[in-house]
User: Fold this.
Amino acid sequence: MGGQICTSRLTHWVTAVLAVAILVPSMVGFANKFLEFAVLVQQDNAGAFAIAPVLNYLLASAGFLLLLGWATRNGMFRDVEQPKWKMLEQERLLDSQQSAAGWSVDAKQTSRTERVE
Amino acid sequence: MVADESQTAVPSIDTRRLVDRPLVLCYYFAALAYLVISMLGGILMALQLVRWNVLEGIEWLSPGRWRMVHTNAVAYGFLANAFLGTLHWAIPRLSLRPVLSRSLSWFIFWAWQFIVVATAAGLVLGPSLQAEPWVVKLASRWHIPLSVGAQALEWGETPFWIDPLALLGLALVAVNFMAPIVRTPGPMYVSLWYFMAAFVWTFLTYAMGNFLPEYVVPGTSAGAIAGLFIHDLVGLFVTPLGWGLMYYFVPIMLKKPIWSHGLSLVGFWGLAFFYPLQGIHHFLYTPIPMFLQYGAVISTIAVELVVTTVIINFAGTLWGRGRDFWDNLPIRWFYTGMVFYFLTCLQCALQVTLTFQKLIHFSDWVVGHAHLVMFGVFSMWLFGVMTYLFPRLLDRQWASRALCEWHYWLSAGGILVMSSDLILAGIFQGYWWAALLPWDVSVMGSRPFWIIRLVAGLCMAAGVVCFLINIAWTARAGSRAADR
Assistant:
């Protein structure tokens, strides 16, 4: 039990540290690129030249920024570890339902077929 | 920590109707048929490099055309079909809802096969038809690009008239799979995030790569977009689908949850923000503005950090269950693919630097890298998924464990030797060219490497033959699971 709490704490710390290390630079990078692009377009022809590829990037990234906002607002990150348990339980129950329906290969054979014996 | 009962309650659903098993099987058979064609193309190319062109004199089977069949068959024939088949298994089980329409699913299956076969026919026969009077007349009447054959776009050689059909097909795929996903109550599992993003990204990437350079954006700017297309096809089509499937299959096989769901979301959002700009690294030292080239280099190196989070997460999941790596064959396929994935990304972070690029550009290093990604990572993951699913789809156990093992070892050994060999050849070639030695020196020096590449390729092909024999034996002679 104590070990589980320790592992859980470690998981949270590693996740938090890596989240800051990955997502903050990516957001800063996104903002920098956008500013750089805005300045360049105003300066010379090189800006116009770069419009097509950069617009592709901005469109994709802006779409995902909006999605991130939507997901946060709709509670997608409220209990961030819950979906992994739900998925596993769901799969177990699906297998048992199929087994009860006489469709045995999923539930009964799982261990054997996974090991390809 | 476990989810409470109310959160995990599975409504009583008709599990037989949830997954269309015959459709998944059809996708897998189609995928494997294209894999055989692709590998045949690869072997023919490898033979040609050791000066044995077995199809010499046959114009429509010349090496240049076979090469395109080789790459397109693996990307759109094998990977796309295998992914689509697996998604028909995974998405309904993750969302507890069937796809939007079974009829639409079957329509998409046949439409996709038409697109792949038409692409192959266009690549093989197109250049020969190019000068036919009716083609010239048609092109001039409708002011369309004169290309019944390959479009001049790496990985996007699909003849131009197929592009709108393929795009329509991708839109239908998105609609069919998104319907159950958007009705799933949140918070969503990470696999569904990856799948959802892949459907949008693939559609946009295909449209960007196949229409903008062809009709809208000219010159070097079109080259920059082509670079984005090549890489986004790997990073925004196969990568999210591949990782989404790994996040689904690894936990259910190990019967333990992913180490950190939060970390998996960090990986997902990192990919979303870092990946889209990096494709321009394919065109370093070109007239593309340097700020775009530097942006691509930085974002490519940054993706390596994102990849590290994913690797940490899967290593954490396997922690304490190392024995499963040896005992559980699908798990072995998956984790071997992950090791190769980490290596390819590390390689990528190095090779996109301007210093490194100067040495390896145009060399066999790139070919080794491409094979490591396509075969060593994504094909291996899909082999693992198929190894897990075929017994369930056929309702029989594998006929031969030995053949399963042979498939794994021949594939893993073959790709390891082939990629190492080509990567080493690339370094040699780069130094020969940098030393301004005659071209012949690099060709003669490369021959031993090309012979090893041929042998490695034959091993990989032999592995696939073992797999096919095993499937045939299992389908025909395997005893029914229920009887055991």
